[in-house]
Write a structure and sequence with these properties.
CATH superfamily of the largest domain: Glycogen Phosphorylase B
Number of helices: 15
Radius of gyration: 23 Å
Helix content: 40-55%
Structural class: alpha/beta
CATH topology of the largest domain: Rossmann fold
Shape: globular
Largest sheet: 7 strands, parallel
Order of helices and strands: EHEEHEHEHEHEEHHEHEEHEHEHEHHHH
Length: 463
């Protein structure tokens, strides 16, 4: 359905943690895009830190409601998924209560990451669209028998509750294939809705003398890596590849630096530990390092590896506009929004040849797809930076045209609206009338009542 024929709708997004990351960027872009098309949009989340979020969620562009942040994220660093489920169910129960009282009523609910609340949300009468970035059951390790047993009911519930959505969409053909194998009992085929980027947000001029940007200005040529500080992102590949350049481009090596930027949350143990590990790795390879922070803004000119955790949009825009190449290091990444950001900034991309980048980066045209091997990455970097970067400029221009034609936020929103229109006209027999759905609703309601009772007992000292 064309976007200009879809009647304005009341749409709510339900997202667990509205921080900084690819999933959050997609939710924000989708919400802003649908809002710009005349729909009434509100975002519900269990956590939102104004100092660690995208600008649209803190400058009143979007209406954001936070529910259930008083619940802990874990106990002694354990049971993250259990508490994520509890927070999500409490949020959904609050949304339903508001609907029953006539305060919050919606035509469409867009749920992502956690499907556990889908059966409960069906009581709202709204159509439910579930956006699957990647099956959660495949994102966790099972290091022990206890962890395997702990995850077993969670994995079963993920498939059952995902199935109850009126429509399921995924972010790439790669994810669609993984989805089919991960959830064999879901017979309906998910639609592919590629994420897009909001082109206007990358067109603004950046004052290179402004705080936070001025410190990044350097005479060195920058090789850039952007990823959350998580081990699965394999950022050490970028460090090893940069170190391998020392032998490949001895004459140019001293004129280069590697900037590793990305989402970082001091509440997340892995973020803190991984940044420390990466810094130690670089130093162990005799590379001089500097970790940028409010207490350590001045970057020594001789620094070879700069770590930039929780970077600002101005810093991102500056780095994308002034770097030589972007290194994208995750393997089997389900999509990856960063290569699109780089290509739109006319920056060539070197990515691991698996997962989503196979659908976004065109080999030899907008960048290079290589095995996750430092030497292979180093060879590709050399091809881009040599001869004054002529090859890189050519690839950058092709990348920008590719994003404008296929991966703009306008194309993303048009496709999303078409899927919503189709969902409103159709009926998903898989989502309705099963005894599992009824039993799960009863169980979810009991869990939510238990949480609310515990909260009252805690805060009002009830016996």
């Amino acid at each position: 359905m064309a976007s200009n024929t879809l009647t304005p709708l009341r749409i709510a997004f339900i997202h667990p943690d509205l921080g900084i990351g690819g999933a959050e960027r997609l939710v924000v872009d989708a919400a802003v895009g649908l809002q710009s098309h005349g729909h009434s949009v509100k975002v519900f989340t269990s956590h939102h830190d104004p100092s660690h979020c995208f600008q649209e969620t803190r400058d009143s562009t979007l209406d954001v409601s936070v529910i259930g942040d008083w619940l802990p994220r874990s106990i002694l660093g354990k049971a993250y998924i259990l508490f994520a489920i509890l927070r999500n169910l409490l949020l959904s129960a609050s949304l339903l209560t508001a609907g029953l009282m006539g305060r919050e009523n919606f035509d469409v609910l867009v749920v992502d990451q956690l499907s556990i609340s889908v059966p409960l949300l069906r009581f709202s009468g709204a159509k439910i669209l579930f956006y699957c970035h990647f099956p959660d059951k495949l994102l966790t390790k099972r290091e022990s028998l206890l962890k395997t047993l702990y995850r077993l009911p969670v994995d079963m519930l993920e498939e059952l509750t995902t199935k109850m959505a009126d429509k399921i969409v995924v972010n790439s053909k790669f994810t669609a294939n993984i989805f089919r194998h991960a959830f064999p009992n879901i017979k309906s085929e998910p639609d592919v809705v590629y994420p897009g980027i909001h082109l206007k947000s990358y067109r603004g001029e950046v004052d290179e003398k402004s705080e936070g940007v001025a410190e990044l200005v350097s005479d060195k040529k920058t090789i850039l890596s952007i990823n959350r500080f998580e081990r699965k992102k394999n950022i050490e590949l970028a460090i090893h590849a940069f170190h391998a350049l020392r032998s490949k481009e001895d004459a140019q090596f001293e004129s280069l630096r590697l900037v590793i930027a990305g989402g970082y949350d001091s509440r997340v143990t892995e973020n803190v530990e991984y940044l420390t590990e990466l810094s130690s790795l670089a130093q162990g390879l005799n590379l001089s390092t500097h970790t940028y922070s409010t207490e350590a803004r001045n970057i020594p000119p001789s620094t070879q590896v700069v770590f930039l955790p929780s970077f600002t949009e101005s810093q991102r825009t500056h780095l994308l506009a002034t770097s030589q190449v972007l290194l994208y290091t995750p393997s089997n990444e389900h999509f990856g929004i960063v290569p699109l950001e780089a290509m739109y900034a006319s920056l060539p991309v070197i990515a691991v040849n698996s997962g989503g980048p196979l659908e976004t980066v065109v080999e030899g045209v907008t960048g290079f797809l290589r095995d996750g091997d430092p030497e292979a990455f180093a060879e590709a970097i050399t091809r881009i930076v040599k001869d004054g970067g002529v090859e890189g400029k050519r690839m950058g221009g092709m990348g920008r045209r590719r994003v404008e034609g296929t991966f703009s936020s306008e194309a993303f929103i048009d496709k999303l609206e078409a899927v919503i229109g189709e969902m409103l006209r159709s009926r998903n027999s898989e989502a309705e009338g099963t005894w599992q759905a009824l039993m799960f609703r009863l169980l979810a309601s009991a869990v939510v009542l238990a949480i609310v009772g515990w909260w009252f007992a805690r805060y009002f000292s009830w016996p």
